[in-house]
Structures are given as C-alpha cells and as structure tokens.
DNA sequence: TTGAAAGCGCTAACAC
DNA sequence: GTGTTAGCGCTTTCAA
C-alpha cells in the first residue's frame, strides 16, 4: 500500500487541508465536514504521518528505556513497570538495548536527536563521558542507579548498603561464619555499590571471615566460573553472597558440580528477587531491590519532568526487602523442610520476609 | 540544555544553512567551510533533529520488533538476534511490547504511521483483523510465525510438526506410554500448531495413550496450574509434553509438589530450548526451534524488502532440533547419571542431540 | 563551491 | 466554520 497524505483526504472530501486536519483531530468543524472527511479518510485508508506531526508539534509521544542487558530478567521487570505507567499517559515506550550495539554514551546522544520526548536510563557504568552527555542532552532523562553526588538529575536508586546488610545479617544468624562475596564486574555501578555494601555489612560481624571476587559479568555463566574459583580453593566458605540472582544461580550450579549440597554444605544468596529464584531448587534467597517500584517511580518522575521541565531534580531511594528461600537456611532448619514442598502453588515462592 | 538547530550553526559559522548541512553530511564543500561548520557544531553542541531529517528523507532508520510477551526469554533471544543484524546495517531497533498495552492490530496501525521503516511481528494470534491491518499498512512487515496459506507476506516460521514428532518419538523410545500434552492457549498461533503437531506425532504410536489440556498462558504459573489438573486426576500420565519451556518448568514444579520425581515417575519436556532449561534440575529436555536463526532471517528478509519493496514474498522455515536433558530420560538411563553432574561447565547443558 | 528557495506532511494562527 | 498561509528543521535541487 502506498502512503496517503492529508492533502489527498482533503481533496477527496472536497475541503481544505486545514478543515481535514481539524475534522480529524476533533477540533471545531461542522458535522457535515467531519462526516465527509472521516469518510474520505476511511476510504483512502489514511493514517497521519507521525514524523510530520512530531516535527510540527515538537513532541513524539515516545519515551525510551535504555538498558545494557535485556537478558537479565530484572530489567524486563523494570520495563514492564515503566510501560504500564507510560502507556497510561498516552506515550509509547521504545526499548534501546545498549548492550549489543553502541555504548550508552552513543545511545544518549542518539536519543537526544529528538525521536523521544524523554528517556529512562539504566547505565551499567557511569563514566564522566556519560555524565557530560547527560548534561548536554536536551531530552529529559531519569537515571536508574547511583549518580555522583551533586549531579542534578532525576534519579531512582536501590539501597545497596541495606540490601547487603540484610543478606549478611541473615547468613550470620543462620550460623554462617565464612562468607565469600561473588560480585559482578567491580567497575560497574551496581558492582561498586554492592561491594561497598558488603564491606560495610561485614564490619558488624568481626568474627566472620570474608573475601570477595569479581565475576566477569552479571550472568549465570560468569557466576559459575567465579564461584568455581572460590570453591576450588583450599579454604572453602560456608556461604556465597552473589551480586545478583544470575550469579547466584551460577554459584549453586558450581557448588553442585563439586558435589556440595545447598544449603547444607554451603549457603547461596542472590540479589534482585527475580522470578528465577523460584524456578530453581533449592529456591534462591534474594533481596528484592524493588525493580517494579523503581520502574514505576522512574516513569512518574520522567512524566513529571516533561510536564514541568524546570522543576527541581528528585532522588528517590527504594527500600530493599529480604526474601528467604531454601538456599540460605541453616542445616537444622533446612532439614525441617522437605525440598519438594518448597513450592507455593500461587507464588512459586517459599516464603517472604520483609526487610 | 536547549535544542540547537542547523540555522544557529550556520549563523555561528557564517555560512548558509545549505552549506552547513552539506558540511555536516560529508557532501561537497570546501575544507574551510567544513572546518568552520564543524567547529560551530561542536561548540554549540549541535545534533541533527531526527524528526525533521526523517520527514525530509522519508526514512527513519528505525525498525520495530513487536512482540506480545517480552517476559518469555525466547523472544528476548529473537530480539537479540534481530538487533545484531539490524544494527550492523545502520538501523536502530525499537521494541514494541504488544502485550501490556494495545492489541497487535493497534500496534501495526501505530507502526504504520511512519516512525519506523519496517517491522518484525511475533503475533500470538493471527486474526482476520490483523491480516487486514497488515495488508493495508504501507510499512514493510515480516511476520514471525504461521500465516494462512496464500497470504503474501515475508514469513519466518518454525516447524511445529517436526518439533512435536521429535519429542514424542523420543519419549516413546524412552519407554513412555501415556503422554499428556499441556498446551498454551489453544486459540493462539503457537498453540494451534503445536497441538496439531502433537496430534500428528502421536498417530505414529497407536499404542500410546494421550490427552491434551490448555494452560491459560505460556507461563510458569499457568503451566503449573494446568499440570496440577492433569496430575491430580486418577490416571496419571508417565510423560508431560509442554508447549514451551515455561509451561514445562511449571509442570516439573507441579510434579514435585505432588511428591513425584522427574524423570523417574514422570518425564517432562519443553519447547524453545531457552536458557532456563539448563537452570533447573533435572535439566529440561526441549526442542530448539531456532529462535536465534529465525530472528536473524526475519531481520534479513526485512532489510531485503526495504531495499526492494516489490520483491516476491519469501517464506523461510527453520528446522528444529531436539536437545535431550535429564527431565525425559528413562528410569534406567536416569539412574546412570548423578544429577549434580549434569552441568557442563561451559554450556550449563547436559547434552545436545541434533534433530 | 555556495546561497536561495522549495518542500517533506502536518497543525495552528489568522483572516474571512 | 472554513480557507489561506506560515513554519516546524532539515536536505536538496537549481542558479549563480
């Protein structure tokens, strides 16, 4: 089919293009004109060209969510939450995956070209270059994740320090005394803050020995490899704190491959509380960082900024909540539960404990 | 930051906007002009407005991937494959999630408005309404999935009949004699063709008794619920064929909750061969429908059609491959393997057998 | 090599 | 209530 323009509609209806436009957009027009124009549009199969309309109006009604790794379910969860808010306000959400193609700097520049009215960014690394690009872009931005103090941007962040404290306190309470932290790449934003959070959390337990290692990625495969390095050593920890659920799952697989039982021989915990935690056995204890809530708030902040561009920058921190499942129970408690009864028929989760 | 236009760049550089445009786009221009304009653009922080450029050029350099349920990892896999091809050709890929917001008809209409140069569609249901919308849209389309015969559109499809035959033959070979098919919603395209495939496949085994049930969704939760209905009955099957991996995982959980052991008491298989199959224990036997390949081919077909709009419609069918893991082995074979040695350190998969 | 000007398709003054 | 016209920001003839 060939594209039909408003000029052809106007011609067909025998009115001016202005009248056609008005009739189509619900502006003031006579009933007769509206009828003629709508009939013409329907017969011709007219759909207004979004590009021309955007150019004229200066708004695209498109918002972008830019994320490095859409393969991680936690970002899908965020996107779903964002989509819900955004589409309710008449915007379309487009996803820009920064992972496979260009760096997030390019993405910011690209989105600054004007095909979106605003963007939500989940950067894995916050470089000076990125901050410069963000400062320069004319497009409203909300950043999901930590930014340097003093940066004047709308931000939504998780509370890594509390998250790690919840996990560490829980493991110590369950009797663990030698905890290994398997982080993602240490130069990423989540990597940095989760490491700092872990280090802070363990100072409260001076008798517990600890160590840290970086996985090459926040993925199952990288978590597996890193956990193998930890577990192959001669001093085997009795608990692994993973920087996210994917790494945690990799760690569980690594432990099993070495003939270890989780949680009897070693406890494992994750972060993000993705759906995966309930898919594996034992269920993976995790900290819910409020992905859904963070996505929702980010979308609301963005809409608010678009409505009022000069408003002050807001920073919202979402509180984490520990969700205990089988992977971190003490030996005694674990034996009190039959593994195959862990599944709850509705949630597929074992239990939830607010943090 | 306020948006800067090419007019301001031209003014700053002391040249006409035509020269500015030429200098910026690598057209013919004197070295001096280029230098002045580039300097001006850099100082002013100019980025060309994509909307205006698109209106002028008639192309957006954007492609869309429209999918109902991005929560299903198989679609993420497809998207990744598409993104790879598309970005190599200088296009941006935007994701339109049709699930949460509007129907796919609305999405097609919306994308027909012109902010994308083409779209790849994974419709869950192919209605007459959708076909009409597809026939009318001026935007090139490639459909992932089955279309009615005679529809003249580029299409990439999986081979459900072969896929189901691979699974059923395998289960029968492993000694299963009472197979329950847990489908997704029967009115969806995958639901229809997987059901038909199953029915065809079992005719080759007249001694095997079978039955079918629809889950409400292609999700873990829906699979769990449907499997419970199957397993709670008095005649318990010795194998469950799930219409996708998520349903299969739900079925494994359901079996475990009833105290059944997989695969000893009951075998379970999935479809799609997503990463999840290697995450759970036992590993889920699944049929790889070639999501990566289908995504790649779809992207190539779309690019080809954009380059040559009048070319004949192509239909490409991608061959499936059975991947056997622990969930479907016969009792004897399963006992030959220690469950915690299933994991391969690189692939996290147990074994792969081409179909 | 450069500048003036047209025009992509649309909406919104503005005058009638 | 309707038509004429300007113009969103850009690229590209067309003359010079």
From TrEMBL, chains A, B:
Keywords tagged on the record: DNA-binding, Transcription, Transcription regulation
Presence of the UniProt keyword DNA-binding in the record: yes
Region (Disordered): 330-355
Compositionally biased region (Acidic residues): 345-355
Coiled coil: none
Domain HTH lacI-type: 4-57
PROSITE patterns: HTH_LACI_2
Originating species: Microbacterium murale
Protein name, entry field: LacI family transcriptional regulator
UniProt cross-references to InterPro entries, sorted A to Z: HTH_LacI, LacI/GalR-like_sensor, Lambda_DNA-bd_dom_sf, Peripla_BP_I
Highest taxon in the source lineage: Bacteria
């Amino acid at each position: 089919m060939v594209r039909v323009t408003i000029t052809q509609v106007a011609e067909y209806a025998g009115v001016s293009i202005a009248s056609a436009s008005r009739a189509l957009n619900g502006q003031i027009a006579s009933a007769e004109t509206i009828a003629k124009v709508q009939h013409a549009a329907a017969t011709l199969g007219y759909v207004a060209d979004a590009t021309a309309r955007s150019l004229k109006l200066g708004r695209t009604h498109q918002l972008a969510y830019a994320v490095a790794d859409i393969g991680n379910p936690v970002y899908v969860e965020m996107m779903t939450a964002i989509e819900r808010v955004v589409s309710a306000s008449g915007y379309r959400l487009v996803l820009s995956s920064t992972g496979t193609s260009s760096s997030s700097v390019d993405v910011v520049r690209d989105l600054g070209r004007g095909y979106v009215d605003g963007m939500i960014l989940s950067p894995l690394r916050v470089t000076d270059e990125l901050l410069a690009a963000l400062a320069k872009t004319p497009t409203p931005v909300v950043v999901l994740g930590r930014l340097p103090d003093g940066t004047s941007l709308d931000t939504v962040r998780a509370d890594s320090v509390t998250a790690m404290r919840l996990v560490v306190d829980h493991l110590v309470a369950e009797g663990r005394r030698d905890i290994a932290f398997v982080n993602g790449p240490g130069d990423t934003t989540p990597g940095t803050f989760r490491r700092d959070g872990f280090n802070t959390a363990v100072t409260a337990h001076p008798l517990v020995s600890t160590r840290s290692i970086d996985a090459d990625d926040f993925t199952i495969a990288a978590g597996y490899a890193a956990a193998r390095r930890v577990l192959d050593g001669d001093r085997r920890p009795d608990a692994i704190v993973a920087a996210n659920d994917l790494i945690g799952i990799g760690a569980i697989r690594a432990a099993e491959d070495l003939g270890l039982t989780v949680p009897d021989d070693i406890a494992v915990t994750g972060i993000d509380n993705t759906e995966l935690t309930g898919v594996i056995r034992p269920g993976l204890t995790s900290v819910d960082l409020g992905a859904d809530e963070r996505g929702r708030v980010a979308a609301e902040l963005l809409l608010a900024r678009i409505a009022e561009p000069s408003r002050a920058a807001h920073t919202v921190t979402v509180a984490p909540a520990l969700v205990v499942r089988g992977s971190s129970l003490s030996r005694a408690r674990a034996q009190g539960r039959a593994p195959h009864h862990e599944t709850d028929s509705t949630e597929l989760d074992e239990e939830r404990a607010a943090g």
